[in-house]
Design brief:
It is built from twelve helices and ten strands. By secondary structure, it is of the alpha+beta class. It has one domain. The strands form four sheets. Strands 1-2-7-4 form a four-stranded antiparallel sheet, with helices on both faces. Strands 3-10 form a two-stranded parallel sheet. Helix 1 runs antiparallel to helix 4. It starts with a helix and ends with a helix. Its main location: cytoplasm. GO terms for molecular function: 4 iron, 4 sulfur cluster binding; cobalamin binding; epoxyqueuosine reductase activity; metal ion binding. Pathway: tRNA modification; tRNA-queuosine biosynthesis.
């Protein structure tokens, strides 16, 4: 006989798929004991670089019951963003996640829809939606709920579809049936460690964020360091190298989210198009895009860094 916890979990998972999420896993809200020393060590070694916000809300990052009163469950969700088309080869490179509309907008809308469904179908449930802009260790929760394992490049990886997806959560005060973690399938593979252009994967499962190309091209507000002059391999916004070389990503399948469809101009842009982009073009092409994080001035800084190569 199905109990309510199991019934509600099945309802939520079915609805999450209908809304367009790739998969859904559920874990019991509580303190992340294993993550605490790892996070502390990572911060103590300044691997967050200038991302000082990572030092804030240390306790909340590890305990969702401090974010949502009476939190009982963390509902983790994956949303595929792997594209069916790719950039022109003669172009500065951008991460595939930035091809379409800013994922924060897309996922927030889907999370609100799922929370509304839970409140309508199950009753008075208090909860909050999170999309990587709040102090939640999303990869840890996704792994805890069996959606994948955290790989040597510190990304969540699944055997069926690799790692090109976003992770989001609903934290709710509803008790549900909980999933169990899966096993690690990285084995002896070191493809991501060997391929990282800046050697940011300093040990298996440990990424020094302050050495990552994504950090340099998006997060860092200062001038780019000269010591990195020949290491960016034309990555202008983010970097996908450690995912592109991961053997599990041969199973990536194109997404079917209309809002992630790229503006065709982005895919056709050549290096000279990027170099000559005006503020007007930027605003038109990158409206509601993740590129607004760096603004045009940030992209120009990155492009100029490449053009100054010896």
């Amino acid at each position: 006989m199905i109990n309510n916890k199991e019934k509600y979990a099945q309802l939520i998972k079915a609805e999450s798929q209908r809304i367009g999420f790739l998969s859904c896993g559920i874990s019991k809200a509580g303190f992340l004991e294993e993550e605490a020393p790892r996070l502390e060590s990572w911060l103590n070694n300044n691997m967050n670089g200038q991302m000082s916000y990572m030092e804030n809300h240390f306790d909340k990052r590890l305990d969702p019951t401090l974010l949502v009163d009476g939190a009982k469950s963390v509902i983790s969700l994956l949303l595929n963003y792997y594209p069916s088309e790719f950039q022109n080869e003669d172009s500065y490179k951008i991460s595939k996640y930035a091809y379409g509309e800013d994922y924060h907008f897309v996922i927030k809308d889907k999370l609100k829809e799922l929370l509304h469904f839970i409140q309508t179908e199950i009753g008075e449930v208090n909860g909050r939606a999170f999309v990587d802009s709040a102090p939640v260790l999303d990869k840890a929760w996704a792994a805890k709920s069996g959606l994948g394992w955290i790989g040597k490049n510190s990304n969540l990886i699944t055997q069926k579809v690799g790692s090109f997806y976003f992770i989001a959560e609903l934290i709710v005060d509803l008790e549900l049936e909980y999933d169990t973690p899966t096993t690690d399938h990285c084995g002896t593979c070191t493809a991501c460690i060997d391929a990282c252009p800046t050697e940011a994967i300093v040990a298996p499962y440990v990424v020094d964020g302050s050495k990552c190309i994504s950090y340099f091209t998006i997060e860092l507000k200062d001038n780019l360091p000269n010591v990195m002059k020949d290491k960016f391999d034309d990555w202008m916004f983010g970097c996908d190298v450690c995912q592109d070389v991961c053997p599990w990503n041969r199973f990536s399948k194109p997404h079917n989210e209309p809002r992630f469809q790229p503006n065709n101009e982005i895919l056709q842009f050549t290096k000279s198009d990027w170099e000559e982009i005006t503020q007007d073009t930027f605003q038109k092409v990158f409206k509601n895009s993740a590129f607004n994080r760096t603004k045009l001035s940030g992209l120009q800084r990155n492009i100029n860094f490449f053009k100054d190569y010896p």
